[in-house]
Amino acid sequence: MAVARLSRQFFLLLSSTFVALLPLTFSGSDSEALLKLKKSLANAGALDSWVPGSAACNGPKGSWRGLVCQGSTVTGLRLDGLGLSGTIDVDALADMPGLSTFSVENNSFTGTIPGFNRLGALKVLSLSRNQFSGDIPSGYFVKMGALKKVRLSYNKFRGEICYEHKQQMS
After folding, report:
1. 165 band by pLDDT with thresholds 50, 70 and 90
2. What are the C-alpha distances in Å from 112 to residues 2, 134, 135?
3. Distances (CA, A) of 120 to 46, 127, 131
4. Which pLDDT does position 41 carry in this prediction?
5. Is residue 17 part of a domain?
6. Does residue 148 form part of some domain?
7. Strands (E), 23-170
8. FRET pair for 91, CA 20 to 30 Å: which of 4, 30, 117, 163?
């Protein structure tokens, strides 16, 4: 009886340890967010390495194309010059809390600037050489406290680009 109870406790301990370590070995949430982003893009053939069921970072075949990873966390997306167009799903980007760099330079994105201002942890935003157009709303960058670099050249933006940064109070 004591051996059976001890074996059961050992099994429960081993099972809970395995479940606790599972998120450290495979970051499914980043992969799911990236696949959601890919679905929103047109001409996404260059992202063929983004396959469901595979690790986005450091998988057996390496990281998915265009990713910058730190361990199993996606910290950057560099999707420059891949012929991408369509809609950039900012909700998918928001599902990647480690994302600090987003670059889609030299692609074919059109329309007004998407809601990147919801990504407060973003340090680098590179949108140059696309076909974005219209005004950038006043105060657009205010909530982007971590932002260090913004590249918007060679688009069709109009008006002034106002970068207001709130000073942190000590």
Report:
1. low
2. 69, 6, 7
3. 28, 17, 24
4. 97
5. no
6. yes
7. 41-42, 67-70, 73-78, 85-86, 101-103, 110-111, 124-126, 131-135, 149-151, 156-158
8. 163
